[in-house]
Amino acid sequence: MSGYLVTILITISIYAMLAHSLNIITGHAGQISLGHAAFFGIGAYAAGLLYTKAGLPFWLDVPLAAVMAGIVGAILGIPCLRVRDDFLAITTMGIGFVVEAVFLYIPFFGGAMGIGGINLPSWFGREMTKGEYFILILAVLALLLLLDYRLGRSWIGLAWASIREDEQAASAMSVHVVRFKVLAFVLGSALAGLAGGFYAHFLTFIMPQNFGFGQSILILCMVVFGGIGTRWGPLVGAALLGILPEISRPIMEYRTLLYGLLLVGMMRFQPSGLLGEDSLVVKSFIKGLSRLRQGS
Amino acid sequence: MIWQQLANGIAVGSVYALISLGLTMVYGILRILHVAHAGIYTLGAYVGLVAFRLVDHFWLSLVAGMVGAAVAGYLVERLLYMPILHMPRIAPLIVSIGLFTAMEEAFRIAAGPHTLVYNAKVGLGELTIGGFRLTETQVLILLVTFLILLFLWLFLTRTKMGLAMRACALDTETASTFGVNVNAVIAVNFIIGSFMAGAAGVLIGVYDNQVWPTMGSIPAYKALAIVVLGGLGNIPGTVLASLIVGLAETFFIGVLSVPFPRDAIAFIAMILVLMFRPYGLLGKA
Amino acid sequence: MGKHACWSLCLLAGVLMVFSNVGPTAAQETLKIGFFAPITGPAAADGMSAKNAVELAVQEVNAGGGIKGKKVELIVYDDRLKAEEAVAIANKLIEKDKVVGVVSGSYSGPTRVVAPILQKAGMPMVAGYAVHPDVTWNPNTKTPNDFIFRNGFLGEIEGAAAAEFAVKDLKAKRMAIIAMDNDFGRSISAGFADRAEKLGATILTKQMYKFPGEKDFRPYLTTIKEGNPDVIFAAGYYNEAASIVRQAKELGIKSQILGEEGFDSPKFLEIAGEAAEGVIIATNLDRDDPRPVVQNFLKNYRAAYGHDADMVGASSYDAFMILADAIKKAGTDPKAIQKALLETKDYDGLTGKISRFVQGEVVKPVQIQIVKEGKFRRKAIIDNPEIITPPKKS
Predict the structure, then answer these.
(1) How far apart are CA B196 and CA B199, in angstroms?
(2) Which residues of B are less than 8 Å from C252 in CB distance?
(3) Which chains contact A through at least 3 pairs of Cβ atoms less than 8 Å apart?
(4) Beta bridge partners of C356
(5) Cβ pair C97, C33 in contact under 8 A
(6) Which of A45, A242, C93, C360 could pair with C136 in a Cys bridge, judged by C-beta atoms 3.0 to 4.6 Å apart?
(7) DSSP structural state of residue C275
């Protein structure tokens, strides 16, 4: 498999994991987070530092990175989630900026130069190839989707759904709203951290600029585009928006513009995303199928 | 030196106030975080610059920038926000972010990625009191901001429309039962807010002598932090918060040489204040 | 018999046509050279400048008959100043486009990502102006990336040269430093401070500002003014440079302002206006250099694009020419190209005469230019080997 193609696939799958993690916070628990890239960064830096400074192997530093991101998510989430919707959006944005600033300014994190030399994992005595790395990420992604499915059907999933639909009603039904919001936040952050760990080992070095507000918006776009709260939406969003830089190289100049217009258009006309209810794509797909069935 | 830094801080804070007021006013009535407001700010700067290049008169270009921004603000409100007001809160927010991204790119494509020069002769002269020196552009900023704030205060307290706006900020539904034309209020609200943002764009264009496509990026986020800090929807709170942030930034980076990014200060201040006053400095529940 | 002949004739005609196309097609084979720069995104201005300059270089080379009779085809990529894009670009250049060499017209971020990938693949690259040490040096294996060469100066060297000039020529004793807080800003201010203190001067204040995006330097300048330094060493790209210089004038600062290669741009002169007069910078482009390579470049760039060239463009142009020169000498085998580059001696480049490369870094004099009547003019040249020779790492 050509190295170039694998690179694209790995990038998309990492973004898929990342979009999925935001989906838990935004989609399942209905909380707007505009600073999600911060946890992506925390995971990446944790993995990178554990690998380069503490000499831990990939198989340890990435899970630890996820745990650390989750812990930070808990610490930040608890005060944050006591505030209202809009405050949360801005506060998460603020968290994103502060975390990026920490990476940029505290020399321990390598400053603007970032951290380099984070190699691909080794197994069976040799370094993994990119293709094998891709398979690994895909496997983890599949696992996550499975977990998502089970979780969705469990009482946690039901609690989340009730909070998303109507927070006050849920709390009136004695659903401990704050606890579940924090849970979603922690899970989403931990997963983002996991993606960050994979990302660090893939790029082999990381810089604070990779984890700023723009990145947070990109992740949000993937979730929105695919469909907030749907299971496959974030993946579709990640795949499509991840492919975009590649096929649109010919229209390099206008890429970001189209991107912004896409967001406007989507929310204006198809707010539940490509895979949400009401989606034109899904509807026409179903219509097409039923027409096929009638024809035969 | 302290007095000079004070002047630096107040000048910057004044411009922040002009941008943030529009944002807080929109939030006050529509409960939307109008991120694209920063795009209107940038538009004001570009329109002002184009006007200046055409007529070579600073004050006319300032008016042009303000009017251009006001028109744009009105269009955004009518065509984009009104139709989606019924949707969950995340929708207008994403539309706003998408619009802002698109606007920045449109500016880049139309005017080029380079910074353009706004070399306007303002004609006001400097002000030196003892060792304290207000540069010409600082005098300009303070003058224009003062006039605009005066106008705003008079409008809100002395006119019928102003009264209607304050009523809507409290409770739109009740206001409409009293016969207030809510749609008109929303439109005027946007127009005034955008008017001020356009002024801010021109002022910064002249203060820094630079206009560039992404000049709205930082004010976009910073203004949000400022309005939360001051109290969402609270006008005096926003002015206060703007000045605090302007002064804090100036002192932290200039006097204390803290190697912390200037723009994070607004957010840190916001987070600190929210811990003790969850609705901002002057906000109420 | 008639039909048979007709068909045979048609077949013959067809065969002849096919073969007649094969001939010229073979001669149309081009020499592919890869190029990447931040053409869109936050650094679009520099990206375009680099792209324009390198395209000019390609035109010139092709007008002169190409390299070894083959036309050069420049494969241009936009990295949008993002690391992931750069990774994809590096892989594409190696596997899809199969270029013989690469020129970087980009910043440290993307160049740094591309370097180890190209190094591993044994593909030579010449970087125009990216400054990060890790471009030519692998920090993990502690070995040089010996397929990677850099045309621009290391921050430490440029800073040291500026300090040398400040103390020896300007006789400055008290200095203030204000620099952007990124790898270049830190390394150049460190280089400046070290050399200045070694020569006996005092550094009064050292301030770092957020980069990119800082526009208002009045808080910093007000503090600097307090100390009344002889020289203010300011580091920044043209936007920051112009703002610093203008606002310093507004605030009534009289100290001499000393800048670096980031100031080297017609945009700096345009935005700073009158305030730029008298500013001195350390850079690599000497406008008063009588050599035809310099004067022709300045003239041709202006004719082609309507505005003056800058350091970014000149450095990228030179990087391309260095690579082209090596290919001309050694052919298209990457190892041979690398060898030719390693053996570079006294190369007459646009941005200075390169004595040689040390672990991929240039040894060439630093140009000190001054703004006189709105244009950059030669002020001095620093060629003290102690200062301009990059330290050998191990």
Answers:
(1) 5
(2) 133
(3) B, C
(4) C363
(5) no
(6) C360
(7) G
Beta strand segments in chain A, E = 122-123, 126-127
Q: Copy the structure tokens of residue B224.
A: 């949000």
Number of domains in chain A: 1
The answer to whether C209 contacts chain B (CB < 8 Å) is yes
Report residue A34: phi and psi, to 5°: -105, 15
Identify the structural domains of chain C with CATH numbers, from first to last.
25-152+289-363 (3.40.50.2300), 156-283+370-388 (3.40.50.2300)
Distance CA C374, CA C210 (A): 28
Q: Chain B residues contacting A, CB < 8 Å?
A: 27, 31, 33, 80, 83-84, 87, 89-95, 97-106, 109, 221, 224-225, 228, 232, 259-261, 263-264, 267-268, 270-271, 274-275, 278
What Å distances lie between residue A178 and A27, A106, A168, A170, B145, CA to CA? 16, 33, 11, 11, 43
> Per the CB < 8 Å rule, is C218 touching B250?
yes
CA atoms of C294 and A88, how far apart (whole Å): 57
Q: Does A290 touch chain C (CB under 8 A)?
A: no
Span C381-388, average pLDDT: 89
- Which residue is associated with the tokens 């605090």? B244
Please give the C-alpha separations between residue C141 and each of A122, A207, C145, in angstroms, as whole numbers: 17, 20, 10
Across the A:C interface, residue pairs with CB atoms under 8 Å apart total 62
Instruction: Please report which helix (H) or strand (E) contains residue A128, including its range.
Output: none
Amino acid at C42: P
Using CA atoms, how far residue A266 sits from A221, A271, B98, B239, C74, in Å, is: 10, 6, 10, 35, 38
Contact by Cβ (8 Å): B98, A267: yes
Return the sign of the alpha-carbon dihedral for residues C87, C92, C98, C99: negative
Domain ranges of chain B: 22-215
Does C212 sit behind a cis peptide bond, omega within 30 degrees of 0 on the bond before it?
A: yes
B1 vs C226, C239, C250: nearest CB: C226
- ipTM for the predicted complex: 0.83
| A237 neighbors A274 (Cβ within 8 angstroms) | yes
Report which of A244, A41, A47, A12 is spatially closest to residue A138, judged by C-alpha positions.
Answer: A12
d(CA C104, CA C34): 8
Q: Both tokens of residue C311?
A: 């350091």
C332-359: string of b/e by CB count within 10 Å (b at 16+)? eebeebbebbbebeebebbbbebbebeb
Q: Are A73 and A81 in contact (CB under 8 A)?
A: no
* 3-state DSSP assignment of residue C233: strand
Tens of pLDDT, residue by residue over C235-275, are 998 889 999 999 999 888 999 999 999 899 888 998 888 99
Q: How much of chain A exceeds pLDDT 70, in percent?
A: 89
Per-residue model confidence as pLDDT tens digits over A242-276: 777 667 666 656 777 877 887 788 888 877 777 77
Which CATH number covers residue A284? 1.10.3470
Distance from CA of C204 to the nearest CA of A (A): 22
Range of the domain at A13: 3-295
In this structure, what token pair is assigned to residue C150?
């850099």
CA distance C231 to C174: 7
CB proximity list for B219: less than 8 A, separation 6 or greater: B16, B19, B38, B41, B200
Rounded Cα distance between A217 and A224, Å, is 10
| Cβ–Cβ < 8 Å for C380, C275 | no
Region at C34 (left for phi over 0; alpha for psi -120 to 50; beta for the rest): beta
Distances (CA, A) of B156 to B162, B240, C86, C289: 4, 18, 53, 65
pLDDT of residue A214: 77
**Residues of chain C with C-beta less than 8 angstroms from the C-beta of A116:** 112, 134, 139-140
Identity of the residue in A104, A253, A261 whose CB atom sits nearest the CB atom of B102:
A261
CA dihedral A36, A41, A42, A44 (to 10 degrees): 140
